[in-house]
Structures are given as structure tokens and as C-alpha cells.
Amino acid sequence: MKKEIVEACIARAQKKIGEIGIIVDEKRTALFELSLAKPNDYEMNRTRMELYQEIREFEALLGRIRAHLSLLENLLTSPSPTSADLGSLAVVKDCQDRSEEVYLIIPKPEVFCVRPSVGQSILCCMSPNAPFCKAMLGKKVGAKFKHQGRTYEVVQVE
User: Fold this and answer.
1) Pairing mode, if any, of strands 100-105 and 121-126?
2) pLDDT, tens only, 43-56
3) For the whole model, what pTM was predicted?
4) Are residues 20 and 67 in the same domain?
């Protein structure tokens, strides 16, 4: 289950890299074309500076996504964890209402995660810095933990 989910997150990151790459190329082309037209025009210079700044921001974003993509790719080759930790997929049961949720613990989850269903549950991608995740980290299968007055049990880790 973890492999398929991580692969879906990798595919999404790769798609995002491609989309941003196209935007950067378009902005570079526009910047080049502006450089050829009226090089001393104040408005053109301002527009060129704005384009240059946008390109730099997109390139910085590309760098962050590539770094996180590398982390995701490492998840595919890392050994299976025995407890809920960074890179693990944990199935957690709410002890009060018996519902289960599936968590993939990764840095910057908003960049990569898809929201597929996993059996009857929805996948939640979570940062290890999130309060719920902090309460779960290090717990082995069968271990219970509390968060916001509710008790949860780790049912599965992979």
C-alpha cells in the first residue's frame, strides 16, 4: 500500500515540476522578447524586473520540489519502519468511534500528496511537525496515544 501511495505522490511532484518548468520557459521567453524591445523604456524595465523576480521565485519553488522529490524517492528504498516515523505509512484507529485513518508521514505534505482512498479510509499526508503526528511518532503497532482528549491506536505501520 505504501509503495503505491508514494509512487502517486512522486508522479504528482514530477507533474508539478513539468508544469512549473513550462511557466518558467514562457516567462524567460517573454523576458527575452522584452529585452529586445525598447531597452531604455521605464515601463519595460519595470516589467522585465517583475518577470525576472517571478522567474527566480518559480526556480526556488522548483528547487524545493526537487529536494522533496528526492526524499520521496528514498522512501521507496528505505527499510520498513517498525514504528510511526518520518517516511512511514500508519493506519490509526480512533478508540472511541472505531474509525480508521491512514497517514503518510512526510515533510511538506501539501506539495506532494494526492487524496486517494485506501480501502474504506482516506489518506492523510502529514508533516512530522503536526500536533497529531507528534503524538503518534515513535509508536509501534498496538500502541495507544492521546490527542485532543481522544485515544488512538496504531493498527499498522509500513
Assistant:
1) parallel
2) 888 888 999 999 99
3) 0.63
4) yes
